[in-house]
Amino acid sequence: MSRGHSSFVIVEESKSKSTAEAAAPPSSRQRIVDIARRLFIEEGYLGVSMQQIADIAGLRKASLYHHFRSKESLFADVMAELMDRILRDFAEVDLEDEPIEEQLRQIALINYRQFDQPEIHRLAMDFFKHVPESEHTEVHQRLRSMQSVFSDIFERAIERGELRPINPHYAATMFFHMMMALAHQEPEFETVPPPPAEEAAALVIEVLMHGLSRNSAQQ
After folding, report:
1. For the chain, which end, N or C, has fewer CB atoms within 10 Å of the first or last residue's CB respectively?
2. SS3 for 136?
3. Of the candidates 172, 197, 170, 168, which has an alpha carbon nearest to the alpha carbon of residue 182?
4. What is the CA radius of gyration of the chain?
5. Which of 208, 184, 183 is nearest to 102 (CA)?
6. Closest residue by Cα to residue 67 from 28, 26, 21, 22
7. Does residue 104 lie within any of the structural domains?
8. What whole-number distance in Å separates Cα of residue 134 and Cα of residue 75?
9. How confident is the model at residue 23 (pLDDT cuts 50, 70, 90)?
10. How many helices (H) and strands (E) does the chain have?
11. Mean local confidence (pLDDT), 98-111
């Protein structure tokens, strides 16, 4: 039996917790994260100061630093919350009874629809450009959770006989990086705009599962 649905269980627990939290008034920390996310989207990370965030939150700047040691760590929380939302979206899709191609297509579509939004794209680009690696721990944890979701999908497909016995972790890594290859990039690196979400998802799954060879497509 595979590791099974462990990653989905973790995400579902997070989802239940977030639903309960949504019913209660947001904490001071959550309010700061919400304000920071909006300002980072509207003005860009470099255009926002901690004093500005404190003023809008109705807090002293010292109180802001009680919750977050730096603007970089606050931005890391903003990004971690965004990635938690994507993980919850993965968990909301009922994938278990679908062939692997459809499972992966649904995952890719969720991914592209999220990052096809200009505000999310701007947050991601600002984060990886301006926030030092020392503040990437929370984001890396979410990336590993995503990797686990993908790996579980491949592992179950191998057990069902849909795929030959490849290493599911390697397959998950290739799938992730193929998706990223058709995501938005910095303007100086983006020679061709990425296709719409549905087209990008279909193309990634077609190439991943069947390759580019005409002979492969006919088999």
Report:
1. N
2. coil
3. 197
4. 19
5. 208
6. 28
7. yes
8. 12
9. very low
10. 11, 0
11. 92
Lookup: tokens for 172: 């998950």
Enclosing domain of residue 10: 6-18+70-218
Specify the CATH number for the domain of residue 167.
1.10.357.10
Taking phi first (over 0 means left), then psi (-120 to 50 degrees means alpha), and beta for anything else, what does residue 8 get? alpha
Domain count, the chain: 1
Q: What predicted TM-score, i.e. pTM, was given to this entire model? A: 0.77
Distance of CA 176 to the CA centre of its chain: 10
For 23, other C-beta atoms within 10 Å of its C-beta total 6
- How far is 113 from 42, CA to CA, in rounded Å? 20
| Token pair in block for residue 14 | 């997070």
Total Cβ atoms within 10 A of residue 48: 21
User: How confident is the model over 41-82, as pLDDT tens digits?
Assistant: 999 999 999 999 999 999 999 999 999 999 999 999 999 999
Tell me if 137 is assigned to some domain.
Answer: yes
Tens of pLDDT, residue by residue over 128-165, are: 999 999 999 999 999 999 999 999 999 999 999 999 99
Tokens of 133: 């690696």
